[in-house]
Amino acid sequence: MKKKPVSVKGQDKNLRVKSFEEVVLGFSEAEVLEEASRCIQCKEAKCIPGCPVGIDIKTFIKRLTLKDYAGAYSTIREKNNFPSICGRVCPAEYQCRRACVFTKKGEPFASQDAINIHFLERFAGDYGAKNKIIVKADSNNKLSKFKVAIVGSGPAGLCCAGELARGGVKVVVFEGLHKTGGVLRYGIPPFRLPRNILDFEIDSLKELGVEIRPNYIIGKAKTVDELFAEGYSAIFLGLGAGIPSFMGIPGENLCNIYSANEFLTRVNLMSAHKFPEYHTPVNIGKHVVVIGGGNTAMDAARVAIRLQNMNGIISDTTIAYRRTEIEMPARRLEIEHAKEEGVKFQMLVKPEEFIGDDNGFVTKMRASRCELGEPDASGRRRPVIIPGSNFEIDCDIAVVAVGLGANKILTSVTPRIVTDKYGDVQVNPETMETSVKGVFAGGDIVGGEGTVIEAMGMAKKAAVSIIDYLYYRWPDP
Amino acid sequence: MKILNKEILADSQGISIVKITLLSPDIASKAKAGQFVVLMVTEEGERIPLTIVNADIKEGAIVLITQTAGFTTKQLANVKKGDTLYSLVGPLGHPTEIKKYGKVILVGGGVGIAEIYPVAKAMKAAGNFVTTIIGSRAKELLILESELKQVSDGLIVMTDDGSYGRKGFVTEALKELLEKESYDQAYAVGPIPMMRAVSVVTKNFSVPTLVSLNALMVDGTGMCGCCRVTVAGKVKFSCVDGPEFEAGEVDWIELLKRNSIYSDKEKHICRLNNL
Known about the structure:
The complex is a heterodimer of chains A (477) and B (275).
Chain A: H1 13-16, H2 29-37, H3 47-50, H4 57-65, H5 69-77, H6 83-89, H7 96-99, H8 117-130, E1 147-151, H9 155-166, E2 170-174, H10 183-186, H11 195-207, E3 211-213, H12 224-229, E4 234-237, E5 241-244, E6 257-259, H13 260-269, E7 288-291, H14 295-310, E8 317-320, H15 332-340, E9 344-346, E10 349-356, E11 362-375, E12 381-385, E13 391-394, E14 397-400, E15 404-406, H16 409-412, E16 439-441, H17 452-473
Parallel strand pairs in A: 1-2, 1-4, 2-3, 4-16, 6-14, 7-8, 7-14, 8-9
Antiparallel strand pairs in A: 5-15, 10-11, 11-12, 11-13
Helix pairs in contact in A: 2-4, 2-8, 4-5, 4-8, 5-8, 6-8, 9-17, 13-14, 14-15
Chain B: E1 3-12, E2 15-23, H1 25-30, E3 36-40, E4 48-51, E5 54-56, E6 61-67, H2 71-77, E7 87-92, E8 103-109, H3 112-125, E9 129-136, H4 145-151, E10 154-159, E11 166-167, H5 170-180, E12 185-189, H6 192-204, E13 209-212, E14 228-231, E15 234-237, H7 238-241, E16 244-246, H8 252-258, H9 263-272
Parallel strand pairs in B: 8-9, 8-12, 9-10, 10-11, 12-13
Antiparallel strand pairs in B: 1-2, 2-6, 3-4, 3-7, 5-6, 13-16, 14-15
Helix pairs in contact in B: 5-6
């Protein structure tokens, strides 16, 4: 008889809404052994191609069953620099777990029965961190003479930096903000990715010899050409998805209407939830409406409901989404957690207008109800407005989480780097090289809003190409 | 990020205007008139934008001038020579388009005078005939008069209380001047009501007018949208699309309201810290 999956323990829902402590507690050793033993070690393991970076999942799970935790950690680290991060933020139900033999073919996301690969990865990653298992850099003489600049310290930049440093290349990471991590720091809240985990993973890069220069914007303080002139042999652009999109509806610039990026940055990066100890403010409302259905929307809603609970406000946070729960791009776990924490969901809702008071602060949102029509280009059924279905909802804080566009600070001053009509950098998908020789790119800047692990997958591919470039194409000085 | 020098330019009526010289060779070598930096005073601090008033490539230094308004500017007024700021990034935003327009008129109000200075200097260097109008509440709060005199063909000083120069608002002098002579380009920085009033005056004389907006910002690189403003009916981000826009196209009322989003919290944190 097939064994039941081990369910992961979470922090009590009444307590966790009053803090930013991590929600998912992870597996204990006993739980890891039980869950790992459910893996039937398929001859042809489908989960491995389901992973964007191709972690040898079968082997690392096998090693866990043998209590060879260090071995499991090393197996993962061969393909993934940041197992503690990915074990927490990967949408495994769309990736490795969906490919697991326990998920029926054609399901939109993983079955409950699929092996909890991500929680096993998290355990192995945390084991490696706790026991300070160091993966050493290659002392590759041929590569050690090269210096590579990485622009952006988000998932793509950090991953590429790690890969190159391990190959023996000297790496300098330029970050625009004052802290490292990109979206891992300003976007993903600490209750999903504790800051000590993030700091550990970044520190492990520094131990590999990676130099990080915060407060530095390439395209402003220095250009791509100047980097080359200073002796960098190649450049990797991990600029991320920059500019938050708005809906373009009336009243969207009223006070207390935030982009998800702004709302999350104020809290996650600037610690606005600790105002006035920290000096960046954020306003907290009685009726928060978050618009969108992705992970960012879930994060914003869960941050908002914490701010309400921590400030003695009866929580009222609503996610308004124009399709239904099935079409939501968010991780299933995040949707579940948001619900547990008291976030309300209004499906099939299309915002039409924000209404404000005399001082310019938002008070209400007017919206229409929708029904699902024919599938659109993405294959998801298109929301169609039901005529006359207009309604109003109280709203004194709104957070718009409907996507991001490309940040053009660097590309606008470097026209040789070819971009598409959205401003995304065009790359050769095989090598991740841009139209400029020696300049590579990966992550959200080359294609919309992906996930952390997809960005890392592209960064790894780029790192392989960069090493190849340095070996075979770089003109010997 | 080290503070090389700090000078109190004015301290009166509960307002101080402080000039800070910072070591930052990379920013100094790239800064152009009209650009700004984003800084944090301490690790707990907020990120605030400030215009780069001067850049000295040889010394690797930039000059910022700030007036005490909210918590962070008050904190900044208390830094000492030799201190180090927690963070400093720049130069951000588009530089002012400097070219030979012909006759250029610059209008600065309050600490906005500091922000028109680099533009006046660059406009003069580009061969323009430069007239500058500066105004403050009172004589004690007037800054950079002699510096601006050096880079202007004409300088008019206005004070609200008449304690120096002429009594009245900068817009009065502007209107009189435009009635007498024609100008090709205007540039104004100051409090929102002043910039708005300037835009009304120059519109009547069909003088194109750039203003540098002081919208609230967080990252200053286009990532958050905190600084969004409506210009000619379109949403723009001050940080990456600006900070300069055509004055007549700015939705001033919206900007004024958006800049007061955190007034209550600002008062609270100042009170808590006796600032």
